[in-house]
Write a structure and sequence with these properties.
The complex is a heterodimer of chains A (about 120) and B (about 110). Chain A has no helices and 11 strands. With about 120 residues, chain A is mostly beta strands. Chain B has no helices and 10 strands. In chain B, the strands form 2 sheets. In chain B, strands 1, 3, 4, 8, 9 and 10 form a 6-stranded mixed β-sheet that branches. In chain B, strands 2-7-6-5 form a 4-stranded antiparallel β-sheet, with no helix packed on it. In chain B, strand 6 and strand 7 form a beta hairpin. Classes of the chains: A mainly beta (about 120), B mainly beta (about 110). Chains A and B meet through strand 5 and strand 10 of A and strand 3, strand 4, strand 8 and strand 9 of B.
């Protein structure tokens, strides 16, 4: 089954304790992205990656890191989490234009990771 | 970046047609317009995408006027299960650029 998986689904942590949220897709998509969703603010893009070893900042990259060492994985790293990073996080992937299945903008989203930083 | 503006919420009844409009005055030449649907505690799901005029699929229609400064998502004969948040996204078909979602429109369908 084609899917985007995220782990963990729920995480409660404390300020300053480094954490990683994993994201993996099995659709051989080039494009992957992380979003955070907060009440009243909709979805905001944190980082995105056009392909292996290619990453770029989205609208709200401060306090986050990403890496793309393999095509299927795109982990989100919080080196020193703070309470204002408490949010619902979504990973998404997409084929790039010209791909057989979908265009650049048709993103497939994971189930979400609810993070609470105390 | 093309900013999008949508109504915060809309109400409808089962069986009615619902039209949700998105404003994107600064849309770029190579931008496409994409709509997503999101249920509570789930990731957004792709509904439809278009560049100009009209696009229709089994779920919805998308109307885009000639100036492309707005677009309208049309949901025919909505049911209770269409209660969700609908997002309009404007972004490039190719190229490296961040994608920006709007705040979404919360559609409530009542019996």
């Amino acid at each position: 089954e084609a899917q985007v998986t995220q782990n963990p689904r729920y995480l409660i942590t404390v300020t300053g304790k480094k954490l990683t949220v994993t994201c993996s897709q099995n659709m051989n998509h080039e494009y992957m992205s992380w979003y955070r969703q907060d009440p009243g603010l909709g979805l905001r893009q944190i980082y995105y990656s056009m392909n292996v070893e290619v990453t770029d900042k989205g609208d709200v990259p401060e306090g986050y890191k990403v890496s793309r060492k393999e095509k299927r994985n795109f982990p989100l790293i919080l080196e020193s989490p703070s309470p204002n990073q408490t949010s619902l996080y979504f990973c998404a992937s997409s084929a790039l234009a010209g791909g057989k299945r979908s265009s650049y903008n048709e993103q497939f989203f994971g189930p979400g990771t609810r993070l609470t930083v105390l | 970046l093309a900013k999008t503006t949508q109504p915060i919420s809309m109400d409808s009844y089962e069986g009615q047609e619902v039209n949700i409009t998105c404003s994107h005055n600064n849309i770029a030449t190579n931008d496409y317009i994409t709509w997503y649907q999101q249920f509570p505690s789930q990731g957004p799901r792709f509904i439809i995408q278009g560049y100009k005029t009209k696009v229709t699929n089994e779920v919805a229609s998308l109307f885009i006027p000639a100036d492309r400064k707005s677009s309208t998502l049309s949901l025919p004969r909505v049911s209770l299960s269409d209660t969700a948040v609908y997002y309009c996204l404007v972004g490039p078909y190719t190229g490296r650029r961040a994608l920006t979602f709007g705040s979404g429109t919360r559609l409530q369908v009542q019996p």
